[in-house]
């Protein structure tokens, strides 16, 4: 199994990431506030994507602070930085790199190291966590959020949802990506030698299919090229599902759709450590 983003890199996918970030903004803000970011703090956003969380960090640390985004997608990262700088967030910077192997992260340690929906795309999330912990300053905070996608469901039986699960979850399984990584986060922290989290958070979302169906449609569209390449889906089946999903949103718009659970963990690094405690 190798690391890689199975959802594709397209303008539509980038817009989906922006909307998704806004959907989960309250859950992410709650964890950022738990870390008590102060003006002048230095933050690292691992897998920064379109930069929405970088903005939340920059608002908290102010112009005297520093916010660095790390992402393998240079086009998206540079675009995010341009948007942030245009909005006046000059304390933001972008670094192209892979959390599992990069040497490009600045040497200074960070008051906050954060990663949302990044570990599920990695071949070795434990190695990534160890590196993120090394980048966390004494007294600093590590926050990670990831999905349990297995619980996506509706309160009525819908064939389009069954097909979404077959294609979307099936593609993740076929490329060796976990669909329940969120519930594994405490165990992964322990395996990485970090220890159990100081606190956890579970955020859910339940809303009518008429307004939430876009999430199923957007994720299906994004993963379809990979699914087609794996032989799990044909172009004809893709087009038929998209038409069926549009009909379901119209005919069953009042059905309740349960989103993936966004599970977060927060660990504070001790301000003083024995040399043997450092990893």
From TrEMBL:
Domain of life where this protein originates: Bacteria
Methyltransferase domain mapped to chain residues: 43-148
Gene3D superfamilies associated with the record: Vaccinia Virus protein VP39 (3.40.50.150)
Pfam families (UniProt xref): Methyltransf_31
InterPro entries (UniProt xref): Methyltranfer_dom (IPR025714), SAM-dependent_MTases_sf (IPR029063)
PANTHER family associated with the record: TRANS-ACONITATE 2-METHYLTRANSFERASE-RELATED
Entry protein name: Methyltransferase domain-containing protein
């Amino acid at each position: 199994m190798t690391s890689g983003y199975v959802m594709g890199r397209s303008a539509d996918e980038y817009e989906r990431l922006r909307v998704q970030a806004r959907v989960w903004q309250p859950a992410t803000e709650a964890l950022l506030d738990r870390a008590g970011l102060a003006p002048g703090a230095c933050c690292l956003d691992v897998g920064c994507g379109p930069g929405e969380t970088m903005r939340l960090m920059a608002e908290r640390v102010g112009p005297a602070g520093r916010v660095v985004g790390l992402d393998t997608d240079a086009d998206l990262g540079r675009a995010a930085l341009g948007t942030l700088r245009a909005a006046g967030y000059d304390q933001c910077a972008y670094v192209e790199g892979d959390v599992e192997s990069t040497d490009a992260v600045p040497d200074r340690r960070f008051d906050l190291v954060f990663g949302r929906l990044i570990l599920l795309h990695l071949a070795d999330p434990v190695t990534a966590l160890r590196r993120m912990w090394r980048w966390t300053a004494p007294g600093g905070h590590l926050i990670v959020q990831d999905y349990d996608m297995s619980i996506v469901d509706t309160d009525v039986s819908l064939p389009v949802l069954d097909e979404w699960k077959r294609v979307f979850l099936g593609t993740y399984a076929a490329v060796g990506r976990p669909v329940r990584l969120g519930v594994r986060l405490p165990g992964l922290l322990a395996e990485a030698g970090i220890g159990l989290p100081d606190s956890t958070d579970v955020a859910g979302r339940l809303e009518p299919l008429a307004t939430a169906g876009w999430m199923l449609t957007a994720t299906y569209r994004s993963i379809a090229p990979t699914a087609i390449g794996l032989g799990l889906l044909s172009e004809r089946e893709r087009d038929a599902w998209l038409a069926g999903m549009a009909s379901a949103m119209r005919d069953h718009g009042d059905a309740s759709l349960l989103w993936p659970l966004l599970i977060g963990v927060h660990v504070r690094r001790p301000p003083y450590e024995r040399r043997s405690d450092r990893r």
